[in-house]
Amino acid sequence: MKKDLVYDEKNQLALDVYEPEQIEAAILLIHGGGWFRGDKQKEKQLAERLADDHFLVVSPNYRLAPDFLYPAALVDVFAAYEWLRAADYPLPAGKIAALGSSAGGNLAIELALQKGIPAASWSGIIDLADWVAHHEAVAAAMNQKPDFDQQDPAKIDQSGLNDAFYKWFVLNYVGQNQKLLQEADPLQRVSPAAGPIFMANSLKELVPLSGVFKLQAALTKNKVPSETRILAGTVHGEGYTELVYQNTVNFLRDSFL
Hints:
Elements: E1 2-8, E2 13-18, E3 25-30, H1 44-52, E4 55-60, H2 72-86, E5 96-101, H3 103-115, E6 119-122, H4 129-133, H5 163-173, H6 178-184, E7 197-202, H7 210-221, E8 226-231, H8 241-255
Parallel strand pairs: 3-4, 3-5, 5-6, 6-7, 7-8
Antiparallel strand pairs: 1-2, 2-4
């Protein structure tokens, strides 16, 4: 692994690279954390597994809210993508995909929508403006845990529905600005130029299932391939890795054919 390679000098943002001996394709692996917490280091276990399956894995840090509101995180992830495209790695035909969980899933979806690359989203945060508009009665409340940075990503936010927290970090991402909330909603950017998207979500988890259905319908309308895996229970993001990992890898591989 090559650690802490700077891809943005101005903002001093770094990424980690996991390079297998034989590269089949590259994956931009984006950490979650509600756009306000998290770090690339938390993706080490998943990144190593992907590298074992012959993927070159690039995992970037990005600027976090509320110090940096939308679109800062998105701008950073796009910069990491351009860094990867320009890097001197033997990528077959420039094959690059994106994978992320929760907020990372949202950013992976944005790469698919705006850059046209394949992406996979595990519990991606998709339904922003419309969800907030229909949940005016929900009082936003954060639930920052003091040991978050020490937690395994597979054990974070696994207790099920939490509308108060969901509303809090969505609004935190845009600084409570309703105009910015509309701009941050990825559903408005679906077009025939989007890349194929794999989505996984649990039925009763932290991230509402509504976004998956809305995005899949919009992708279908625009004749963009997608695949959805809906899981029982309350498990969020990397908590269900074992159940969706092979589906995800197969989907991304098929998308390159």
